[in-house]
Write a structure and sequence with these properties.
The chain is of the alpha/beta class. It contains 17 helices and 16 strands. It starts with 10 loop residues before the first strand and ends in a 5-residue tail after the last helix.
Length: 426
């Protein structure tokens, strides 16, 4: 684990977002900043979208004689008073060093590590509000699952954040059902972070001789470099600012210290693209798995769909992010195969697809009945990925991903899925 050692300053951490998953991650972060005061400032700010609410009658904090229960109060006031997010993560105690803040600009002020955990559609607007209010050398970690896809490109949410704010941002994803994590039931996650070269504190020799490295005077000072590579191996348009040398480096060790708990095990890798793609493509596979489950075809059929789905996830990553994506991210990490298994076992994409077949209605009708206005990520991702593949003439390379979209569109039947997976035309 990281240690302050010779560093005179500590990292200040802010969590941007306070929903179900945002509050669960904020709990973990605040527990770890308190346990590692040599690396982090103890207090963690959590930005909260302010709204009026009351303590629900089902809460242990409910008191019919208290104004907190009978009159609306600001959510931040309730969180800071009860040390619990009574609306979005009820029943889970939050550390007292976690401070809810309704001001986005105040909450990110002077923070060196920003953890983003909010619906992806709010990224652009919130980043615009944060501009000019964050440290220019801050670094980020996005807990927002998935990617942004259109016919032109596939964009990682972490890179969208980094480009908007002029910082480097990694990603966190895995088989992580928020309530289970918050209840401290054992789980794993993957943090993907590829430290920019200027963040290194160890100079790299410019060249070597038969006798070994060149003298120290000819070593390359990585902190003088402000360029870094994006997820496709190209030079990023963002010119990064080097963090001060009196701060501990934000590297794999520091991030494991920030997120790892006895109940929440963390593996840190450098494959940001692979981790992000896993969080998106698995939702399409989960829909396909739900379809065959709805037909009552059993566990063998579900396993077959997951196997083919995993292969297509790897193929997609290697084809379109060939410079960075690692096969083992999908086959060995929580963000890959473990998240796929969880999503194909009981996730809402799986459940809604299963119900649509059982009820003989469209998945859109199930969404309206079951999700209280929310939309499935798998349906939108399937459409976006299909458009991206079609624009490149690559539909035949991904028969399961494309076949799932065609079923959603009503072009083919669910019963055709085995043939579609083999690439047979329907």
């Amino acid at each position: 684990m990281a240690s302050l050692g010779a560093y005179s300053k500590k990292h200040k951490v802010t969590v941007v977002g306070s929903g179900n998953w945002g509050s669960a991650i904020a709990k973990i972060v605040a527990e770890n900043t308190k346990e590692h005061p040599d690396v982090f400032e103890e207090e963690v700010q959590m930005w909260v979208y302010e709204e009026d609410t009351t303590v629900p009658k089902t809460s242990k904090h409910y008191d019919a004689g208290s104004k907190f229960s009978t009159e609306p109060h600001k959510l931040t006031k309730l969180i800071n008073h009860f040390h619990e997010n009574v609306k979005y993560l009820p029943g889970i105690p939050l550390p007292p060093n976690l401070i809810a803040n309704p001001s986005l600009q105040e909450s990110v002020h002077d923070s060196t590590i920003l953890v983003f955990n909010l619906p992806h559609q709010f990224i652009d607007g919130l980043c615009d509000q944060m501009k000019g209010h964050i440290l220019p050398y801050a670094r980020g970690v996005s807990c927002i699952k998935g990617v942004s896809v259109d016919s032109e490109d596939v964009r990682l949410f972490s890179e969208s954040i980094g480009d908007k704010l002029g910082i480097y941002c990694g990603a966190l994803s895995g088989a992580n059902i928020a309530n289970e994590v918050a209840q401290e039931k054992f789980s794993e996650t993957t943090v993907a972070y590829d430290p920019p070269p200027m963040d290194s504190r160890n100079p790299t020799p410019k060249a070597t001789t038969p006798q070994g490295p060149t003298p120290a005077s000819s070593q390359l000072d990585l902190t003088a470099i402000n360029e870094h590579k994006d997820s496709r191996g190209k030079t990023s348009k963002v010119k990064l600012i080097v963090p001060p040398s009196d701060l501990p480096p934000i590297d794999h060790n520091t991030l494991k210290t920030l997120f790892h708990r006895p109940y929440f095990h963390v593996q840190v890798v450098s494959d940001v693209a692979g981790v992000s793609l896993g969080g998106a493509l698995k939702n399409i596979v989960a829909i396909a798995t739900g379809f065959v489950a709805g037909l009552g075809w059993g566990d063998n059929a579900k396993a077959a769909v997951m196997r083919v789905g995993l292969l297509e996830m790897v193929k997609f990553g290697k084809m379109f992010f060939s410079n960075n994506v690692q096969t083992k991210t999908f086959t060995e990490e929580s963000a890959g195969v473990a998240d796929l298994i969880t999503s194909c076992s009981g996730g809402r994409n799986y459940r809604c697809a299963k119900m649509s077949v059982e009820r003989k209605v469209s998945i859109g009708e199930v969404e309206k009945e079951e999700l209280n206005g929310q939309m499935l990520q798998g349906t939108s991702t399937a459409k976006e990925v299909y458009g991206f593949l079609k624009a490149r003439g690559k539909e035949s390379e991904f028969p399961l991903l494309v076949g799932t979209y065609r079923i959603l569109q009503g072009e083919v039947r669910v019963e055709d899925l085995p043939d579609l997976m083999e690439g047979k035309k329907k």
